[in-house]
Specification:
Elements (H helix, E strand, L loop, with lengths): L2 E11 L10 E13 L9 E11 L15 E5 L15 H8 L3 E5 L12 H4 L5 H8 L4 H15 L8 E6 L1 H12 L4 E7 L10 H21 L3 H13 L13 H5 L10 H18 L5 H10 L6 H6 L13 H6 L8 H5 L19 H4 L7 H9 L9 H5 L4 E7 L7 H8 L6 E5 L6 H4 L1 H12 L5
Helix pairs in contact: 3-15, 4-5, 7-9, 9-10
C-alpha cells in the first residue's frame, strides 16, 4: 500500500476566469504517493506519483478531503509521457463526471508532470545507456497499473466500497485494459475513449494497419488543400539540400517536416499543418529561406524534445516478449512513394503528392531533435530488448465482471479501428461505440457527447 501525503489544497471557481461574484465549484487536493520504482524489486528504490483529487466544494473542506463519500473515477491520460492537465474550470470531463456523482482522481502517470518527470537532464544521473534503458523500461502500462492499484488500496482502505471506476483516454485506455488484466476485481466500471489497445505482442501489426490509415488521411489533406502538393514538394526539396536549424539546435530535416502529419489525427489538425506549410512556402518564395518565426512555430508543434519518454518507449508500449526493432521504420519502406522522399523526388510529375507520416518513431529523430541526440544508444537498446513483460491476459479479459464501455473512432490514425474492435471482443461484456463523428480527441472536443454515450452503453440503455 502506497504511503502518501497531501501537499496542497485549493478551490476552483465556477467560471474560466475568476470573478468575485462567481461561486466556488470544486476543491482540489494534491497528493504525493510513494511507490516502488520496480515492482519486481520493491526494495530497490521508489518514485513519487502525483495526483489531484477533485470533489465538489460543498462536500469537502481544506482539512478533511475524506468528508466526500462519492465513488472514485480515476482518469488516465494519453501518452505515453504526457502529463494530466489540471482542472481549472467548470467545464469538460470534470463537470461531466462530477455531475454524474463521482469524485475524480487525475493522475500524473509516472514519468510525467509532477510524477518523477523524465527529461534528458533527469536521466543524466542514471549511469550508462544500459542503465538508462532499464530505467525507462519501468515506465510502461504495467508499472502505471501497479501504481494505480497501490493508490487505490491507500485511498479506499477505510471505505466500504473497495472498487473504483476508470476513464482512460488513448494510452490511458491501453492502461485500462492492462488494469483489467492484472486486477479485474479492483474495477467497477471502465470507460475507454480512443484507446482499446491491439492485443498484439509487437508493434508490427499495429503499424501495418496504421500506415494505411495515415495514407487515407494524407489523401484527404491534399483533397482539401490541393495547392499544397507543390508547396510541400518545394519545401522538401529545399530541406534536402541544406541543413536547416531550429531555434533549440534541432534539425528541420525532410523526415522531421513530414512528421507534422502527427496532427492529422486531431480535430483541425489538417488546418494546423496547412498553416505551417503555407507559411514555410511563403518564406521560400519571398525571403528565400524558412524564417526564424516559421521554424519556431514548427518546433513548437512537435513535442518530442519536451517528451523524450514518448520517443523512447512509444513502440515498446506494444511489446510483450518481443523486440520492437524499429517497427515503424522497417514497415515504412513497404509503402514506396508515400513515405520515402528519395523515391518520390525522383518523379518529376508535380502532381505527385509527398505524404506526411503519423504517430511513428524513426531513428532519424535521435539526430534531428536536440534533446534526443544523446539518447540514440538508449533507444537502440530499447528497440532490441526482448524480455518485455506481458501487458494483457486474454483469459482474464474474457471473464471480467467489470462493466466496460468504449468509443473507437473510424478515422483514428493512432489506434487502428479494426484491431480495437477485435480486442474489444475479447473483453467480456464490452460495449463499443464506433463513430466517425469525432477524431481521436473526441473526449476533449465534446466530453458531454462522448461520455453521455458511454454511460448510456454502460447502463445497458441499448437494444
Amino acid at each position: 500500500m502506497a504511503e502518501f501525503e497531501i501537499i496542497d489544497s485549493y478551490h476552483v471557481q465556477g467560471m474560466l476566469t475568476a470573478v468575485p461574484s462567481c461561486p466556488d465549484w470544486i476543491r482540489v487536493f494534491e497528493y504525493l504517493f510513494a511507490v516502488p520504482l520496480d515492482y519486481k524489486e520493491p526494495t530497490s528504490g521508489e518514485v513519487k506519483v502525483f495526483a489531484r483529487r477533485v470533489v465538489p466544494i460543498e462536500e469537502a473542506d481544506e482539512t478533511d478531503p475524506d468528508k466526500c463519500k462519492r465513488p472514485y473515477m480515476i482518469y488516465l491520460q494519453g501518452g505515453p509521457g504526457f502529463e494530466c492537465e489540471a482542472p481549472l474550470s467548470k467545464s469538460g470531463r470534470t463537470k461531466e463526471l462530477i455531475d454524474r456523482g463521482y469524485q475524480v482522481l487525475y493522475l500524473d502517470q509516472r514519468g510525467t508532470g509532477y510524477s518523477a518527470p523524465i527529461s534528458f537532464g533527469t536521466l543524466k544521473s542514471n549511469g550508462t545507456d544500459e542503465q538508462k534503458a532499464r530505467y525507462l523500461s519501468l515506465f510502461r502500462a504495467d508499472s502505471i497499473v501497479h501504481d494505480c492499484e497501490e493508490i487505490r488500496k491507500a485511498l479506499l482502505k477505510d471505505t466500504t466500497e473497495k472498487k473504483w471506476s476508470l476513464l482512460g483516454q488513448s494510452f490511458g485506455g491501453f492502461c485500462a485494459v492492462t488494469y483489467l488484466s492484472f486486477y479485474p476485481d479492483s474495477l467497477k466500471d471502465v470507460l475507454i475513449t480512443g484507446g482499446v489497445p491491439p492485443l498484439a505482442d509487437s508493434p508490427d501489426p499495429v503499424y501495418e494497419a496504421l500506415y494505411k490509415r495515415v495514407i487515407k488521411r494524407n489523401k484527404a489533406y491534399y483533397e482539401k488543400f490541393p495547392k499544397d502538393i507543390q508547396k510541400v514538394r518545394n519545401i522538401l526539396s529545399y530541406l534536402a539540400t541544406r541543413e536547416v536549424l531550429l531555434p533549440n539546435g534541432g534539425i528541420l530535416s525532410v523526415e522531421r517536416f513530414q512528421q507534422l502529419g502527427l496532427d492529422f489525427g486531431r480535430h483541425q489538425g489538417m488546418d494546423t499543418v496547412h498553416q505551417l506549410v503555407s507559411k514555410a512556402s511563403f518564406d521560400l518564395e519571398v525571403v528565400g529561406e524558412i524564417t526564424y518565426n516559421t521554424r519556431s512555430r514548427i518546433e513548437s508543434a512537435q513535442g518530442f524534445d519536451s517528451n523524450i519518454l514518448y520517443a523512447c518507449i512509444h513502440e515498446a508500449i506494444y511489446c510483450q516478449g518481443k523486440p520492437s526493432n524499429w517497427s515503424a521504420e522497417r514497415l515504412r519502406s513497404q509503402h514506396g512513394r508515400f513515405f520515402n522522399w528519395h523515391v518520390v523526388s525522383a518523379n518529376s510529375d508535380p502532381n505527385v503528392p509527398i505524404f506526411f507520416t503519423g504517430e511513428m518513431i524513426y531513428r532519424s529523430m535521435f539526430k534531428d531533435y536536440a534533446e534526443l541526440r544523446d539518447l540514440k544508444g538508449v533507444a537502440e537498446i530499447l528497440a532490441s530488448k526482448t524480455d518485455w513483460p506481458q501487458l494483457y491476459d486474454v483469459p482474464t479479459l474474457n471473464k471480467t465482471t467489470a462493466r466496460v464501455a468504449a468509443v473507437s473512432y473510424f478515422n483514428d490514425i493512432y489506434v487502428d479501428l479494426d484491431l480495437s474492435v477485435e480486442a474489444a471482443s475479447q473483453i467480456n461484456g464490452c460495449r463499443q461505440w464506433v463513430t466517425s463523428e469525432f477524431l481521436h480527441n473526441g473526449l476533449t472536443v465534446n466530453p458531454s457527447r462522448v461520455l453521455g454515450e458511454l454511460f448510456r452503453l454502460l447502463e445497458n440503455d441499448v437494444e
